[in-house]
Input
Amino acid sequence: MDRIFLDANVLFSAAYREDSGLVHLWDLESVELVTSSYAVEEARRNLDTASQRERLVKLLEGVRVIPVEPLVEVPPDITLPEKDVPILRSAMASGCTHLLTGDVKHFGPYFGRVIGGVLVSRAAAYFKARE
Output
C-alpha cells in the first residue's frame, strides 16, 4: 500500500477547481492519503472562496492529518526553505512512501529521489507510475 503525503499546493489545487484532476488521488485503491495541519492551514489560507474552502474540508475527510511537526532531521544534503522543511519532516515521520508536490522551484531538484524513505514527485509522475 502506498502512503502518500500531500503538500499544501496539492491540497490547494485539488480544492481550487471542482474538476481538478488531482481529486482522482482520492479514488485510488491501496492508497492512504496523509498531510499535516501545517499543509492544511497553508492551503486554506490561499483559497479565495467559501466553496473552495468547503471542497477542501470535504477532501480532508479522506486524509489522515498529522497534527504537529515531528522532530525528524532532514538529511544535511537537502536544501529547502524553512517553510518547506515541515512538509518533508512530516512526510518522513509519518512513514509515507511518497511526497506529492507541485513545488518545482524548491522540491524540483529532488523529484525522483528518495529522502528519508519518501519518494518526492509530482502528482502526474505518480499517476503515470501507477499505469
Observations:
- The chain has a mean pLDDT of 97.
